[in-house]
Amino acid sequence: MSRRLSEVFAQTKSANRAALIGYLPAGFPTPDASVELMNAMIDAGVDAIEVGLPYSDPLMDGADIQFAVDAALSAGTTTDVVLDVVSRLDGERAAILVMSYWNPIERYGVERFAVALAAAGGNGVITPDLTPEEAGPWLAATKANEIDRIFLVAPSSTDDRIVTVVKNTSGFVYAASTMGVTGARSQVGAGAEALVARARLATDLPIAVGLGVSTGAQAHEVAAYSDGVIVGSAFVRCIRQAADLSAAVAAVRTLAGELAEGVHR
Amino acid sequence: MTTLSTPVVSGHYGPYGGRFVPEALTAALDELDGAFRSAIVDPNFIARLTELERSYTGRPSPLTRADRFAAHCGGARVYLKREDLNHTGSHKINNAIGQALLTERMGKTRMIAETGAGQHGVATATAAALLGLECTVFMGEEDTRRQALNVVRMQLLGAEVFSVTAGSRTLKDAINEAMRDWVSTVERTHYVLGTVTGPAPFPEIVRYFQSVVGREAREQVLEIEGRLPDAVIACVGGGSNAMGLFSGFIDDPSVQLRGYEAGGDGVETGRHAARFAAGSPGVLHGTRTYVMQDEWGQTIASHSISAGLDYPGVGPEHSWLHDTGRARYEPINDDEAMEAFALLSRTEGIIPAIETAHALAGAMRVGRELGSDAVLLLNLSGRGDKDVATAARWFGIGAPEGIEMSEGR
């Protein structure tokens, strides 16, 4: 079976653009609303959805995502709810990924989580606090269940580290644009392009850039040297600022549309 | 130097430990690991550390025989390792000075730290002042309230205190915020983790700098008693004072290792910080260890009258010592700890930190269990000045006329 993520990146490449990957925490502001919001993002041109699994101690996340995750946890978003959200997304038109800190997956059961995610229609998992060295059982479980596992590289990664990370990654490589936590920034880290170039020497996998991208213009700039553009906090922020759910859906749609324009080269 | 009978294989203690951190921090942890390993075989580094321990911290700390307190411990002979007499009032200075020297060695100019009770924050702020480094301390808002005295001390020492309003507003959230700062400023900043937890190599580094406690105590008790103690006793939050003491005796099978965690209102109430009594293995703050968590792996907020023990995780080596049976861990409830707090104050003229009072309550149990021939050695990890307002409220002691009990309320 061909992997869904490979298909997505093959399609976007042939259309001479980068893939647009949009993040929202499952359950924010409620489980049902998060499904509606993420399907609206897909409708407006997002190629892959990153479904955040809310965790009590999100130490890689800035204020916007911390807020959203707290709200999702208060709304009762358990791992089973996240899997239900995944199953209700439009997987025909977008690849569906989960972004999770490691402990909830370990607690659920590594193999059990991989099986359940595949059954729910999930295509891959991004694990921001798991490095390949600690990932033994996860490597086996994702392989057995044909789920892509996405590890991160960062500006501080040595060339040797990049080789280790990409060797264990499938689907695409997540390049963190900057040394810092998630959150919209006025400028995407200057080190991002250099990092992508270093990663290219180590892999033929697509490379997507995340952290700090919030506007169509930034997406355009990043799309010029990468294969994918990841946007999270900006979506969260427009939901926080909306008066009600229908306004939030409209705002998310508008932002996704602007970003989808931006990723054309 | 200390022996390492616990198997440390690339930062793992059996199934525990390891490094669960964003890739962005891997390079900094590797750099720290390298700096640490070169430092501890560098005679100049060791000489500087030893000299500061002697002339600045005031080491060696004495061993005090506590006979009047011991009468409440089944008549066993009880020795107190007086870390409360160190400069800044607790064992935390041992690690802070060591890591400050590592900071300098790595060419970094800024230190950050998390703190619960404020003792590690004060120790780090002190070391920063001594070496001319910038310092920011992250402290949960709840803790800044109950440990207001230490907030002022840190500010007087020139540190910036960042009050953390996320999550449960206690130590775990302070660590989250320190990690967020660190990943953004890692080029010039060293994160001085205050206890034997976090991603490798932190548990090993902190144990190393605290092992002076166990090394001295072993020599001292052998000199006085001519034999090893039957049990060594310490309170366990993250577990640095316990690991420091235990490290001196871990290879002596006749010596029981006893750790006391915070039972809060009682383990059965759910309001506690009893990771071993009520937690399960998981990953928190970069390491695999016993964690208070729900069925979905979400961290459960801990509760304790003692800010320094109010933490839902514990150092990974303690988890290993627990599973192998080499050390035994039990919860001590708030009321038992406060009873021991009052008892030591009145029988020995030593007001202990409330954290330490948990170990004292443990000694009362162990002494009754082992009987009057037993020799107990307890780490008196800190002094109680910072806890005076909390204790006054607990015991309903009013301030004398004209004296403002300004803290907390």
Automatic annotation (TrEMBL), chain A:
<comment type="subunit">
    <text>Tetramer of two alpha and two beta chains.</text>
</comment>
<keyword id="KW-0456">Lyase</keyword>
<dbReference type="GO" id="GO:0004834">
    <property type="term" value="F:tryptophan synthase activity"/>
</dbReference>
<dbReference type="InterPro" id="IPR011060">
    <property type="entry name" value="RibuloseP-bd_barrel"/>
</dbReference>
<dbReference type="InterPro" id="IPR018204">
    <property type="entry name" value="Trp_synthase_alpha_AS"/>
</dbReference>
<dbReference type="GO" id="GO:0005829">
    <property type="term" value="C:cytosol"/>
</dbReference>
<keyword id="KW-0028">Amino-acid biosynthesis</keyword>
<keyword id="KW-0057">Aromatic amino acid biosynthesis</keyword>
<dbReference type="InterPro" id="IPR002028">
    <property type="entry name" value="Trp_synthase_suA"/>
</dbReference>
<dbReference type="InterPro" id="IPR013785">
    <property type="entry name" value="Aldolase_TIM"/>
</dbReference>
<comment type="function">
    <text>The alpha subunit is responsible for the aldol cleavage of indoleglycerol phosphate to indole and glyceraldehyde 3-phosphate.</text>
</comment>
<protein>
    <recommendedName>
        <fullName>tryptophan synthase</fullName>
        <ecNumber>4.2.1.20</ecNumber>
    </recommendedName>
</protein>
<comment type="pathway">
    <text>Amino-acid biosynthesis; L-tryptophan biosynthesis; L-tryptophan from chorismate: step 5/5.</text>
</comment>
<dbReference type="Pfam" id="PF00290">
    <property type="entry name" value="Trp_syntA"/>
</dbReference>
<keyword id="KW-0822">Tryptophan biosynthesis</keyword>
Automatic annotation (TrEMBL), chain B:
<dbReference type="GO" id="GO:0004834">
    <property type="term" value="F:tryptophan synthase activity"/>
</dbReference>
<dbReference type="InterPro" id="IPR006654">
    <property type="entry name" value="Trp_synth_beta"/>
</dbReference>
<keyword id="KW-0028">Amino-acid biosynthesis</keyword>
<protein>
    <recommendedName>
        <fullName>tryptophan synthase</fullName>
        <ecNumber>4.2.1.20</ecNumber>
    </recommendedName>
</protein>
<dbReference type="InterPro" id="IPR001926">
    <property type="entry name" value="TrpB-like_PALP"/>
</dbReference>
<feature type="domain" description="Tryptophan synthase beta chain-like PALP">
    <location>
        <begin position="57"/>
        <end position="382"/>
    </location>
</feature>
<comment type="pathway">
    <text>Amino-acid biosynthesis; L-tryptophan biosynthesis; L-tryptophan from chorismate: step 5/5.</text>
</comment>
<dbReference type="GO" id="GO:0005737">
    <property type="term" value="C:cytoplasm"/>
</dbReference>
<dbReference type="InterPro" id="IPR006653">
    <property type="entry name" value="Trp_synth_b_CS"/>
</dbReference>
<keyword id="KW-0456">Lyase</keyword>
<dbReference type="Pfam" id="PF00291">
    <property type="entry name" value="PALP"/>
</dbReference>
<keyword id="KW-0822">Tryptophan biosynthesis</keyword>
<dbReference type="InterPro" id="IPR036052">
    <property type="entry name" value="TrpB-like_PALP_sf"/>
</dbReference>
<keyword id="KW-0663">Pyridoxal phosphate</keyword>
<keyword id="KW-0057">Aromatic amino acid biosynthesis</keyword>
<dbReference type="InterPro" id="IPR023026">
    <property type="entry name" value="Trp_synth_beta/beta-like"/>
</dbReference>
